[in-house]
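User: For this week's homework, look closely at the record that follows, marking any run of repeated tokens, and judge whether sequence predicts the tokens.
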Amino acid sequence: MDLGIDRSIRHWWVFLIRGILFVLVGIYMIASPVASFITLGFLFGLIIFVAGVSELFHVVQDRTQTGRSWHLMLGIIDLILGAVLMSHVTASMAILRIVLGLWFLFRGVSLFMFLRRTGSSWLLIAGAALTFIFGLLILFNPTFGDLTIIIWTAIAFIVTGFFNIAIGLMMRRG
């Protein structure tokens, strides 16, 4: 255990470089939102494709597993869907926005459901309504949805980058 920690401390610069790259990618995403969204659409397809490969690998490796045919079918569907989404990035970008929009809609409804348990609170009602409206905006206003995905992903990259830089610098000192 200590060896792993010591080894990571010797390689503090890896965190620093990774952090700088995260920050630069986040800034690039904000500066070039169209190219960034196209890339995210492709990556969405790639992730589904890799999930399919992983599913099929699991089916081949674990012959004693029950429900192997189900996992085989899911793996094949993921492979096909991933390949289609990678080759048709426009479809992938639309699906990405729809998935995110639906997720926020369901979160908004879920918050409304908590009103029964916790009692009415103006803060919970406002949060539920805003989350639900946010989901509707992402679904029915493509520009808003696309920009939302890009901006929040860029912010996540920048924040992750700053934390990696901080960790690298702390490891160097420590």
Q: What stands out?
A: Residues 142-173 form the longest helix (32 residues).
